[in-house]
Amino acid sequence: MSAPLEVEGLSVGFRTRHGVVQALSQASVTVAPGELLLVVGESGSGKTVLAHTLLSMLPRNVNVSGSVRLGGQELLDLAPADLRCLRGRRMALIPQSPASSLNPVRKLGGQLLEAAQARGLAEEQARTRLRELLGELGLDLDFVSGRYIHQLSGGMQQRIVNAMALVGEPDIVIADEPTSGLDSDLVDTTAAQLLGISARGTSLLVITHDLRLAQRLGGRVALLYASRIVEIGPTAAFFQAPAHPYGRELLRALPEREGKSIPGLPPELTALPGHCAFAPRCPDRFERCTEALPDLYPAPEGVLARCFAHAER
Amino acid sequence: MLSAELVTKSFGRVVAVARTSLALQAGARLGLVGPSGSGKSTLAQVMAMLLAPDGGSVMVDGDRVNVWGVRCSRELRHRVQLVFQAPRMAIDPRLRVGDAILEPLAASRMLPADAGERAALLQAWAVRVGLTGDLLERFPHEVSEGQLQRACLARALVVRPRYLICDELSSMLDVSTQAALLQTIAAVQYEQELGVLLITHDRVLADRWCERTADIRELSARSEGGYLAAHEVRSPRRLGPGRRGARSSARP
Predict the structure, then answer these.
(1) How close, in Å, is residue B77 to chain A by CA atoms?
(2) ipTM for the complex?
């Protein structure tokens, strides 16, 4: 059922009056069937643009090059009608804020049913499927059907959007900042539910800036900085010893570690340097770092890091 | 000392804060944690004199606050400043970042008349919060969330408050920006005995950064038999006569 998602050489730039804002440069990443991939980075590093590109949710002023394939099918040049078939059935999105992504003036029963029917299920079938799915998540279809989204607690709202994402049996689920603005109890619930989705064998791509959530979810992690993937590898290895200096400095900024910020600001996306973008802030930079752009070099523990420190291996 | 004494605030039938007391000493770092909907932000806005409480009182350095919102005296309001969670919603989108930082001074007619002095003041604060280059010349939609939150912090500190309330300062930001903002606050605190109330979901952060952490569920008297979330509190009369009760008793 599951198909691999392959992103290759993906570059996305937005044409603005200040020039082209390069949100993603040459990003290549593969999500194998059933795999869990985390995309982490600060705001403006390109992680949400990655999610939106996969789902073809970009605005018009955009230049996209590269390739995104799901089970061998190229997604970037699909017609809108084909995209509609794809969304929900093969690829589903768990939106950032459940409460604001559902219609506040319609009862949930109708909205859930509509989502299921849009995935091609007949009404009776849709009901059975929703009952099963919500049951697995500990909710009763009859209980939620007659209610509005604001009448449910945050944890229940999260489960509703999860059920909506899963109802079409997608190959891959993309969760965009699933825990931003939630309190710690809800973060726990959300993490457990995401792990539940992953345990069903569905591939999962989680976009987050919450490093603690990333650590808890495990799987593999891709770290973005200034539009490029700077490190990609097993999550456990990343939290033990990041291979890229940016990863190392980022972990040091966690309050439970040193709480020490990285000096300086990330570069402007309209004027990305031709050399390593992190070099001006990097404590370990040497001459070459400000002269050329590093590739992704193999580092220990199966990690790839975009840093000349690993070039000699 | 900035203190809230037995503050109660309801919105319609929802009791957001019930008979809650909290005191922040000058120069101290106090953390306030609690789940969503527990009234942390409402309490923050009452303590910053933006919202009038239904009951209880707020004292700033011994002065009782009697007038709330825009009518509250500027001098009093300058003593307590609030930084909000979402910088994009907290800042006027039509102001350039530099003008937004100086706006509180301009509004109070405290801006230096000399252009050079103004530029120097702006530059000093920009450097302190880590904003460099042409960022000050841009509009809010042209800078990142983290950069805008740095501007919001500068905007709060520029009036030299005695107390700073940070309402989820960094829950939408990456850890490095969070650390940078907290370092700036710590430096200002060291210089001018700033009292800081840090409201956060992040218990680890509160325990690490603050000298003391309070849980609003333990401070609040919103329910006798245990804590209830705001939407679960239904009775408007539990805490004495509300608007509805007052109106019915006034009628013959």
Answers:
(1) 28
(2) 0.80
